[in-house]
Every structure is written in structure tokens, then in C-alpha cells.
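[audit] Reproducing an earlier prediction to check determinism. Same input, same settings, fresh worker. If the C-alpha cells differ from the archived copy the diff job will pick it up downstream; this log only records the rerun itself.
[audit] input (449 residues):
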Amino acid sequence: MGNLTMKYPTRYRTATIDGLSIFYREAGPPDAPTILLLHGLPSSSRMFEPLLSRLADRYHLIAPDYPGFGHSDWPDPKNFSYTFDRYAEIMTRFTESLGISHYTMYMQDYGGPVGFRMALAHPERVEALIVQDAVAHNEGLGANWKTRRSFWADRASNESALRTNLLSLATTRTRHVGNDPNLEGYNPDLWTDEFAFLSQPGQAEIQSDLFYDYRTNVDSYPKWQAWLRETQPRLMVIWGKHDLSFDPSEPEAYRRDAPSAEVHMLEAGHFALDTAADEIAALVRQFMSPGGAYTPKPQKVLYTARAHTTGGRDGGASRTDDGRLDVTLSVPGDAGTGTNPEQLFAAGWSACFLSAIKLIAGKKKIALPAGVSVDAEVDLGLTHGVHGLAARLKVTMPGVDPKIAEELAESAHHVCPYSLATHGNIPVVTTVVTGATEEARTAREVQHV
């Protein structure tokens, strides 16, 4: 996976939204399924670096900094409303400016209230939700929120206590380590860097204004819960069991609203990526695999194939309703004269994959030679007595620059429905040949399990 990830290094960019410079990190193929990563307090998009390096081979990852955080602009609170409504508006316009119309949202801490606002405003854009230590139920706010609730009730009298409770070095450290006994797993730079950020001129005012608006999140919880119950979105909840910021009952509260939600309790703190990045990356891959977030039921059916089969593999027959396909079937390797499902699958996949390559090349204005072809091999085998498949795709692009050819083949796996359907289920090896010889360059060689 390392070589594939190196093909899509993280890029550090900015976009101008409503006159503000919004910094963001971007990694992965632009035409792959998009994951929008929404950070928490007092972090920034930097908290997602462990995921960017682990998932860029398969997903298009976008991680912005909110205004007042990280490397985005920090407008004066006298001239800018630091509210979660405003953040959601800016993040929505940010995705629109990048041309991102559909995405899975990964929401951590403050990312929850930003993301839920975005989801309710444009539910058609949200393919799935990944909630990581973010609250949507009043019960999820634990005992340490007493001071914070007092601040909401009487800001002037409780401003100083709130800043100590929310922004001190001790609190910043506790947000990371919680009650985890394995302190050796935490890099202290995590909280010292964040405390240095919080100590910058103007930050106390910015964070106090934003946290005063947090009370509107609590008021919105019933609306978010109702939306979860009514729409039943694909949902995965990841929770650090050593998180002291929120009550440990919160993950199951999500499952009450969305019974099919996946819930994973990890040996981690509030910022679970600190110590469980490998595990979280694996969970995201599993969640996003076929049947998951990026292969939802089609919103518009373009074509439906219908076939009637009798007799099965051994001497059977299969015919489509329009009569264009009318074949007899034989068991692979026997003396029968019919075809078999593996041959039909290989033909369908190779045709689909070649069309995907041509589609991508056309969008990128890349001229392809006439001799571009795809050879598919599909193995039927046994593993511990269970039948299974494995496949190899050989893509021939004579005269095409090897790097461009590899990128086209890589991108085709994100477009071809056969590739999307098999991803995570069978091992697939793709080779790309660009010269006259069989000196092939491997574009994809990933054991999908």
C-alpha cells in the first residue's frame, strides 16, 4: 500500500470562501469516493494526517481548517460571527467551490455540529456518516460540562472559569490522553502544539465566542436525532473508550436512533487517531467497501439486464429477455461445449474497465491509441473448502506514457462498476503494458480482503 499512497501525496492548498482564505489538505485520486474530514477543538486538519497517509490510495480525502483554526484566516470576532451555523455555511460553500457534490463525512468533536448542519441542509449530498467522538445527545455531555453550561447561562460571570475549563494546558492534555493508562503511546507534542495555538493573540476570544454558540448545538440535538431516525443514513460510530470529554453512553445513543449503525469502541482517547490510526483506517476501508457508502442504491437506474437460467453450470442454459445472449453452460474444464459464468464475468469486466479508461481519458483530454485493450482472467478456486474468485486485469496502452497509463488504470478502478463491486471481496492484480514487450508496470496489486 505504501507505493500506492506515495502516488497521491498530501497537498496543502487554500480556497477563498466569502472573502476568507480556507486552508485544506487534500490527498488521493480526485475521481475516487470523497471523504470530507471535519476536525474538532482545538485541533485542525492536521489531526487527520494519519488517515491521509493510510487511505489516499483508495479515497479522495479533503480536510479543511475552519476560520479561526489552523492555517485558515482568523478574522476578528468583532467582524465575524464565530458560530456553528456560519461554519456549516462556509464548509458547504467550500465543498461547492471544489466541485464536490457527494461525500462521506468523517466528523470528530466540533465536526459533528458542523457536519449535521450540512447534512440537514443538503441530505442528497451525504453518502454516509462516520462519527468519531462527537455528540448528538444531551446525555453525551458529561460531568465536566457543568462549568460550560453555567457559561451558556451567564457568560459574563463565567467567562474566566470557562477559559480555564476549556482552554488550559491541563485540559488540552486531558483531551488527548483521557484516562488511558498507556501514556507512552501519546506524543506530548500533540497537546503542547495545540496549547501554543490556543495561546496566540485573539484565540481566547475566538474560542470563547464559538463555545458560547455551542449551546445552539444542544438545542439542535432533537432535530438531528429525528433526522437520523427518519433517514437511517449509513452510519459508523468510532469512540475512544478513554475519552473524558463526553459520556461513554453516547455511542449507543446513536444506535438507538439508527439501529443499523456500526459502533466501535477503541483503546484510545478523544482524539482516537493519536493511538489507533491503523485500526481506524481499516474500519473506514471496511465501511466504505462495496455495499457501503460509495456504492449506494442507484438514484437513477440506467439499464437493467434480465436473464433466465435453467440447469445451472452443468449442461444448463441462459438467455436474456431480449434474446441477444443465448448460451449453453458447461462446468469449467469439462468436455462440454458451453461457456461458464467465469468467462462471462471476465468479458463483462474487461469491457466495463476499458470503457472506464476511455471515459477518464476523455475527461482529462488524453489521446489514446487505437490498440488499447484489456485482458481479464478470472480464477475459480477453493480456499479451506470454500469456493472463491481471484482476478487479473492486463491493460495494454501502446505508446502511452507509463505514468499516465498507470494513473488511468488506477482511476478506472474507481469508476468501473465491476471494480467497485469486487473491491474488498476478491484479490485483484492489475498490470499495465505500455511498450511492445511484456515489460509490465504494476498499477494496482492489492489483496482485497
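[audit] rerun output stored. Observation attached for the diff report: DSSP finds 15 helices and 15 strands in the chain.
[audit] end
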